[in-house]
Amino acid sequence: MARAIRFHETGGPEVLRYEEVEVGNPGAGQVRLRHEAIGLNFADTYFRSGLYPVPMPAGMGVEAAGIVEAVGAGVTNVAPGDRVTYTGFVNTLGAYSTERLIPAAPLIKLPEAISCETAAGMTMRGLTCAYLMRRIHDFRKGDTILLHAAAGGVGLIVSQWAKLLGLTVIGTVSTEAKGEVARAHGCHHVINYSRDDVAKRVRELTDGVGVNVVFDSVGKDTFVSSLDSLKRRGLMVCVGTASGPIPPFNPQILAMKGSLFLTRPALADYIADPAEKNELAAEIFGHVAAGRIRIELNQRYALEDAVQAHRDLESRKTTGSSVFVI
Q: Over the Cα atoms of the chain, what is R_g?
């Protein structure tokens, strides 16, 4: 019997339940997938808390990697025995499971050089970084970015990718230990936001000019300081709300602070086109396979320990990527 983490009501980590589930045969357009590793992402907590509403009861998780066991009618992009990974949104919800049925469309075949554990720890983060670095802004060598949560899974990949592009990275972290991790992965400057005034320090580091782009995954607590860190006509990229949603604001503030640009992108809109998804996947997997970008799998959990994993994630005890290993 397969097992899965499910939740029957929204709330804190304690609502997660480890249950037996029935997995049948794949229908048209589906595959039956046996997971080897599952990604743990902060977005998972948004489903659990109710910020992203879904019908109850519901599965948990949107990213995993494993082996195709069987395919349904009409499936041509994968075959039994293929090693695959996936990420998505509601259409892939239910990744916290040993085995499952899933639409074939989101599946990406894994290169031989990428293990299932690595894939589960990088597919969502890697594709997110790929569109941030390749679609959001036309970066030029010498540009400077401010990167919040620089020691997190996305942060460590962005730092390394930015270094490949010749960018200067200013990263923010909550502890000195995380600062060392960020520096080791390409951050040129590190700001401890629990101690320093981020915007003031950014101005000092950029001779008063500010940065070209801010990647802000924190949200409510950092929104204003992120705007204040931008140069004239700079770009604010809201990529998450770990501290809570950004309160409503008057857009006039963007003009007052230097004719700033602001965007709130979603990964789903950058991987909706299969050709674009494959292009972005090929680029990030290529960097990882060649050793140009390292994926740090710093936390491994058993699936039945999902409650503890969510507690660790929300208390900011984690660095890099976290996975459940089956």
A: 20
pLDDT at 90 over 70: no
Task: Quote the pTM value.
Answer: 0.88
What's the mean pLDDT when you consider all of the chain?
94
User: At 219, is the pLDDT very low, low, confident or very high (cuts 50, 70, 90)?
Assistant: confident
Q: Kindly tell me if the per-residue pLDDT of 78 is higher than 80.
A: yes
Domains for the chain: give ranges and CATH numbers: 2-123+278-325 (3.90.180.10), 137-264 (3.40.50.720)
- d(Cα 64, Cα 312) in Å, to the nearest integer? 19
Token pair of 80 as six digits: 């039994």
What pLDDT, on the 0 to 100 scale, is given for residue 14? 97
Residue 226, C-beta contacts closer than 8 angstroms, at least 6 positions apart: 146, 148, 198, 199, 214, 216, 236
Q: Give whole-number Cα distances, 127 to 33, 85, 135, 187, 281, in Å.
A: 21, 12, 11, 20, 6
Residue 183: φ, ψ to 5°:
-60, -40
pLDDT band at residue 141 using 50, 70 and 90 as cut-offs:
very high
Which long-range contacts (C-beta less than 8 Å, at least 24 apart) are formed by 172-178? 172/146, 172/147, 172/148, 172/198, 172/222, 173/149, 174/316, 178/150, 178/151, 178/319
Cβ atoms of 210 and 237 closer than 8 Å? no
